[in-house]
Write a structure and sequence with these properties.
Elements (H helix, E strand, L loop, with lengths): L4 H9 L2 H5 L12 E2 L3 H5 L9 E4 L9 E5 L4 E4 L7 E9 L5 E2 L20 E5 L8 E2 L5 H14 L4 H4 L7 E11 L2 E5 L16 E6 L4 H6 L7 E2 L3 H5 L6 H13 L9 H7 L1 E9 L2 E2 L14 E5 L8 E7 L12 E4 L6 E4 L7 E7 L1
Parallel strand pairs: 3-11, 6-12
Antiparallel strand pairs: 1-7, 2-4, 4-8, 5-7, 5-9, 9-10, 9-11, 13-14, 13-19, 15-16, 15-19, 16-17, 17-18
């Protein structure tokens, strides 16, 4: 039986009470999570500290955005005088909130533009690196996420929402400060430079991919906020993305092409070669579809929830999780919207309906 669009959207977007969560609390002495407000930002000096980066022992460069593999050795460095104390921070977006620049499908004037919604950012000091001029911050992300998720949990956020944060792959932002005699002397760009589009591209960003294939590049978009109706600037700079935009932003980086326009689901269905059409019910296909023959990891899967000709949601096939060689309810798909990029089983019902699988 084909899924109605209402039931499908309920599956895709989850229970509203679960998604809404509680408002983020302010930082505590124990967690040292900072949630800057306008007065804090106004009190900060202009950024004049540069962070240099080196990958796998290579040349030190001043580059604001790096795409690296999770196996790469990435070092950061700042110049500081004797007597200065360097402090390092990880900046993170609140991806337990779902943002929207356009109306959701169930709202009046569906898909209508509503304006850029402000993305909430916080930061946490990497205390293990305090005083060091040269650091490898990615090694510290795991313990930092534990502090961050504990902080969110104390604010009432559900485990479902906290699972969106990833430590080994995804997007990470870092900031450095120089202190002397307990006074801030200089800083690199940070939350202070965020605008209506989100965090500034001047902030050091490390996009850590899981590998050099398409799915590896897509995994570099973990930790990026889900923004329904995201704009091209947001998706290509890892600031925010929805279901179609995140696939195409990763595709452009994989193909080493410039991202030139926004895509919706229907545009992707028209752009790429179709491998298979089928109907999914309970995550199971109406016909036998074989991994490695009919479909492959990284293929796009688009779903039409009703009897219209419009496709409503899209993701990327991730893995034959039960290794039986057949596309079925146990298999994994990587997708975004309105939540950030995350994995679901086909059995969750998110892709139940008329389905087309595309070769990217």
């Amino acid at each position: 039986m084909r899924t109605t669009i209402a039931v499908a959207l309920a599956s895709l977007y989850g229970a509203i009470s679960c998604l809404a969560g509680a408002d983020t609390q302010t930082g505590t002495a124990e967690t040292a999570i900072e949630s800057p407000d306008e007065s804090w930002i106004a009190s900060r000096p202009k950024p004049r500290l540069a962070i240099r980066t080196s990958t796998n022992g290579g040349k030190w460069v001043k580059k604001r955005a790096l795409s690296v593999s999770k196996t790469d050795d990435v070092a950061l460095r700042v110049d500081a005088a004797d007597g200065d104390e360097v402090r390092w921070y990880m900046i993170f977006a609140d991806i337990t909130r779902f943002y929207q620049n356009a109306n959701h499908p169930w709202e009046e004037n569906a898909y209508g533009w509503t304006g850029l919604q402000k993305i909430a950012y916080h930061r946490v000091e990497i205390e293990a690196l305090r005083g060091q001029r040269e650091v490898r911050p990615l090694a510290e992300v795991g313990p930092l996420w534990e502090r961050v998720t504990t902080w969110f949990r104390e604010a009432g956020k559900s485990e479902y929402l906290l699972d969106f944060y990833r430590a080994e792959v995804g997007t990470f932002w870092f900031q450095a400060e120089i202190w002397r005699d307990d006074a801030l002397q200089a800083r690199s760009p940070g939350i202070e430079e965020a605008d209506e589009r989100g965090i500034s591209t001047r902030v050091l960003r490390l996009a850590v991919r899981g590998g050099d294939d398409y799915l590896g590049h897509l995994e570099a978009f973990f930790n990026v906020p889900g923004v329904f109706g995201s704009i091209l600037y947001q998706s290509k700079h890892h600031i925010g993305a929805d279901c179609a935009d995140v696939l195409m932003a990763a595709w452009a980086k994989w193909k080493k092409r410039r991202a030139e326009k926004n895509y919706n689901v229907q545009m992707l269905v028209g752009k790429f070669k179709k491998r298979v059409k089928t109907v999914l019910a309970g995550g199971n296909a109406s016909s036998e579809i074989r991994w490695g023959v009919d479909v492959y990891p990284g293929d796009f899967i688009a779903v039409n929830y009703d009897d219209s000709k419009r496709y409503h949601h899209i993701g990327a096939l991730y893995a034959d999780q039960n290794t039986n060689g057949l596309l079925d309810a146990d298999d994994l798909v990587l997708h975004a919207g309105p939540a950030p990029l995350h994995l679901s089983t086909l059995g969750s019902g998110v892709f139940d309906g008329d389905v087309v699988i595309l070769k990217p």
